[in-house]
């Protein structure tokens, strides 16, 4: 059984409980969680999140800039101090799309190792997609038979379509944990009863899509171009090719994880201050999401910058993010999109703890 929630806590772990750490260095942000297992759940005892804009300028130059590297190393040094403070020995520290694409990635990794002592692992897109699915497992509804998991990142967007028709409710946790994604065909190559119909890592996220159309001054035109460009990149995704329309079938669910989707949810709820307990697991319809997107377009850049529901760190990226989201909801409209305030870090922690059999009622 997966944790029903992942709630930050400041409590010290009970005697003997091992602490785990997961760090996600993305195109835009550096995030880390430190947690200990507790039954079938885990408790977060420390966290870190900072916008480092590692991928800034990557679209134009193909490499990580000196300023971006300096910002990132500064953030990683804070993470190192936290890891040392908590005496962490079981950890996984990963980097994603920006490092996968940067021509100077190896130089960057060597500098990180020399200046922080941290060894970053650049994970492949299929591993990023798998971990996104694992992190969202607690939100899968019992009646779900066809599941689309969407993870909108800074430099890429992962989509995984899973058929759960043959999975008994009691076996879902272990079936999801056993998923493996083939690096070429997209099909599951493991004994899991959960069948991966297809998966794709679209090399466009909120930062990279924004950068590609930064020279288009008209905002409505820029939004439309971003949406069309993203859809073009989905041509190899089997459910898109075959025009699968599961909204007419019972048991279809979308789970979306990203800052874009949680921000849309906060706006929909009218939150003046972000509240994870109200956002995580929230169910939204295509119509509700479209209404929020129209609000964003109507308020313009200045309005979005000053809207507390969006926040200063995200206002410049929200338009590209909702261009991706609207594209997906147009292709697969549903009244069952569940918002997930969780992602790669949580997936990393679940996987590490399951590997150690540290979560009870968990089948490895």
How would you portray this structure in words?
The protein has 364 residues and is α/β, with parallel strands linked by helices. The protein folds into two domains: 20-124, ATPase, nucleotide binding domain (Nucleotidyltransferase, domain 5, 2-Layer Sandwich); 127-344, Exopolyphosphatase. Domain 2 (Nucleotidyltransferase, domain 5, 2-Layer Sandwich), CATH 3.30.420. The protein is 40% helix and 19% strand. It contains 14 helices and eleven strands. A six-stranded mixed β-sheet has the order 8-7-6-9-11-10, with helices on both faces. It has a five-stranded mixed β-sheet with strand order 3-2-1-4-5. A hairpin with a 4-residue loop joins strand 6 (146-152) and strand 7. Helix 7 (206-212) packs across helix 13 and helix 8 (219-232) crosses helix 13. Residues 1-11 and 184-190 have low confidence and may be disordered.
């Amino acid at each position: 059984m997966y944790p029903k929630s992942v709630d930050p806590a400041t409590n010290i772990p009970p005697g003997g409980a091992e602490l785990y750490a997961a760090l996600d260095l993305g195109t835009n942000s550096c995030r880390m969680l430190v947690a200990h297992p507790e039954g079938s759940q885990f408790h977060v005892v420390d966290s870190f999140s900072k916008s480092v804009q590692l991928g800034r300028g990557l679209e134009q130059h193909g490499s990580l800039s000196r300023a971006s590297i300096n910002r990132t190393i500064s953030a990683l040094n804070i993470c190192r101090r936290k890891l040392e403070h908590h005496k962490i020995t079981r950890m996984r520290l990963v980097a994603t799309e920006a490092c996968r694409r940067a021509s100077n990635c190896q130089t960057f990794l060597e500098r990180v190792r020399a200046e922080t002592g941290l060894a970053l692992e650049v994970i492949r897109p299929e591993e990023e997609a798998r971990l996104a699915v694992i992190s969202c497992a607690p939100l899968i509804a019992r009646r779900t038979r066809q599941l689309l998991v969407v993870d909108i990142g800074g430099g890429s967007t992962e989509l995984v379509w899973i058929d759960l028709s043959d999975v008994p409710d009691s076996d879902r946790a272990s079936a999801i944990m056993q998923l493996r994604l083939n690096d070429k065909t997209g099909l599951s190559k493991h004994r899991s009863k959960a069948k991966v119909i297809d998966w794709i890592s679209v090399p466009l996220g909120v930062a990279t899509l924004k950068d590609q159309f930064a020279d288009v001054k008209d905002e409505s035109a820029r939004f439309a171009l971003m949406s069309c460009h993203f859809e073009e990149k989905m041509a190899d995704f089997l459910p898109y090719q075959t025009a699968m329309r599961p909204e007419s079938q019972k048991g279809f669910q979308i789970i979306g994880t990203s800052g874009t989707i949680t921000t849309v949810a906060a706006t929909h709820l009218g939150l003046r201050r972000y509240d994870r307990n109200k956002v995580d697991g929230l169910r939204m319809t295509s119509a509700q999401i479209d209404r929020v997107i129209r609000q964003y377009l109507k308020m313009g850049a200045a309005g979005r910058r000053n809207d507390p529901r969006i926040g200063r760190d995200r206002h410049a990226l929200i338009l590209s993010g909702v261009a991706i989201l609207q594209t997906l909801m147009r292709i697969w409209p549903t009244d069952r999109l569940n918002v997930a305030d969780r992602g790669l870090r949580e997936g990393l922690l679940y996987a590490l703890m399951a590997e150690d059999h540290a979560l009870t009622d968990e089948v490895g």
